[in-house]
Amino acid sequence: MALNILSPAEIKAISFLDSTKSNRLPKLQGGLSLKRKDCGGRRIQCSVQNQNQNQPPPAWPGRACPEAGRKTWDGPKPISIVGSTGSIGTQTLDIVAENPDKFKVVALAAGSNVTLLADQVRTFKPQLIAVRNESLVDELKEALADVEEKPEIIPGEQGVVEVARHPDAVRGVTGIVGCAGLKPTVAAIEAGKDICLANKETLIAGGPFVLPLAHKYNVKILPADSEHSAIFQCIQGLPEGALRRIILTASGGAFRDWPVEKLKEVKVADALKHPNWNMGKKITVDSATLFNKGLEVIEAHYLFGAEYDNIDIIIHPQSIIHSMIETQDSSVLAQLGWPDMRLPILYTMSWPDRVYCSEITWPRLDLCKLGSLTFKAPDNVKYPSMDLAYAAGRAGGTMTGVLSAANEKAVEMFIDEKISYLDIFKVVELTCDKHQAELVVSPSLEEIIHYDLWAREYAATLQHSSGPSPVFA
Questions:
Q1: Region 357-384 average pLDDT
Q2: Lower Cβ count inside 10 Å, N or C end of the chain?
Q3: How far apart are the C-alpha atoms of 85 and 154, rounded to whole Å?
Q4: What phi and psi, each to the nearest 5 degrees, are found at residue 448?
């Protein structure tokens, strides 16, 4: 199946992606212009200079130091979990179960898996629960009929918000997928809760709005992604201005050993065969396209304040080094570990402390047994997602959320076999290209959510046909 490409009259003369490759440097909407920059012998890149607004303050300005006088916990630290029945949520609860002296659950929110949510209630005894699908409230109550100490139930989106800002929680784990995680995260920040961040859209789409809010309420955003957790761990105690470069490692996904010419033959089952990680369908496809890494570049910019010219991607097939930083004196610091999401989740929950982990459930890394670690540069032809992500990041504002939403919709269409694998890139490019005319540099929360929905709807209009697949240069 292939994408029915729009007619030339419907596509601008300079497309979104082409504007980052061409010698022509157009002025974009929203007071943005492209500036050519020579990166000291590295490849020439375009930097978008924001002429109207200052960039939002980073969550961590290249360093991480606990504030003096910030409250510490002698007993179990109370947490809430939004997305408790998903991958992040269940792994978080595994950590709580293993460390009942360190953490306790006060509130849980799920989407529609009421059976698993009921089991979690029996085990962890939260005070408040929510099910986002309001039609399942009666089913949830029936599943909890035998529970003696029943929690309060608040259905729907409002219930998810109430879980996120539960008065007894000091940290909230945001494991919900998509822009659905924005409102509860904002509510938690406004209630003064530190955020254990596993929801990409919070920063990729919401960064321009969320980061100033976090600073206003003195809230810490603690990254749960393995790559950003690695960077976060490496910047602990750095002096101001010491961070020079961020190096994001990527496994290369399912097609790291495939020649570019063979990608036109990719089937859904091929894209879901990740060599290292056991993840959901969407993120596994993102790993195959490397869109996950492009989105992580944007997230790293918002989290740590690094300029896009100072964030690099390298392929590291073993997934043992989760990411690195380079300091001003050219020292490189790395965080290593087995591919296990529980470690970065645990660190968001315990920071600035470190929690002892059993060798039985948390195998220790043995480098001698591992043998060797290898690296190579990513192929921009095989992974056009990187150019798209850097371009969206430099455009800023609502463009990064549009990129993420368009990719999510394109992946959904690919999994449903409505478009081909290569069409994922073109759907995203065309959606970002279309959005240039309406780019909002400093969006409100309502504008962020509006353009997230717009991007999904627009991407869905790019229907498939029996014509030839697009060719990527």
A1: 92
A2: C
A3: 17
A4: -60, -45
Whether 174 and 197 have beta carbons less than 8 Å apart is answered as yes
* pTM for this model (two decimals): 0.87
Q: Name residues whose C-beta falls within 8 Å of residue 361's C-beta, 6 or more positions apart in sequence.
A: 98
pLDDT value, residue 81: 98
Element at 94 (helix H, strand E) = helix 87-98
Beta pairing class for 103-110 and 194-197:
unpaired
CB 139 within 8 A of CB 115: no
Give the C-alpha separation, 391 to 400, whole Å.
9
Mean pLDDT, residues 21-30 taken together: 35
Output b/e per residue, 425-446; b: 16+ Cβ within 10 A.
Answer: bbbbbbbbbbbbeebbbbbebe
User: Which contiguous run of DSSP H or E holds residue 116?
Assistant: helix 114-124
Q: For 253-290, what is each residue's pLDDT tens digit?
A: 888 889 999 999 999 998 887 666 556 788 889 989 99
Residue 248 and residue 252: Cα distance in Å, rounded? 12
Average pLDDT over residues 73-79: 90
* pLDDT tens-digit map of 141-171: 999 999 999 999 999 999 999 999 999 999 9
**Residue 352: cis peptide before it, omega within 30 degrees of 0:** yes
Exposure string of 98-124, with b = 16+ CB inside 10 Å and e = fewer, is: bbeebbbbbbbbbbebbebbbebbeeb
- As a whole number, the mean pLDDT across the chain is 86
* Per-residue pLDDT at 37: 37
C-alpha–C-alpha distance, residues 448 and 440, integer Å: 9
Name the residue among 102, 142, 101, 104 with its Cα closest to residue 123: 104
Which structure tokens are listed for 332? 């490189």
**Own/partner pairs for 361-367, CB < 8 Å, 24+ apart?**
361/98, 363/338, 365/320, 365/336, 365/337, 365/338, 367/336
Question: Percent of the chain beyond pLDDT 70?
Answer: 85
Cα–Cα distance list, 271 to 349, 381, 420, 467 (Å): 32, 17, 11, 22
- Taking the chain, what is the end-to-end CA distance rounded to the nearest angstrom? 20
233: left (phi over 0), alpha (psi -120 to 50) or beta: alpha
H helix or E strand, kind and range, residue 164: helix 156-164
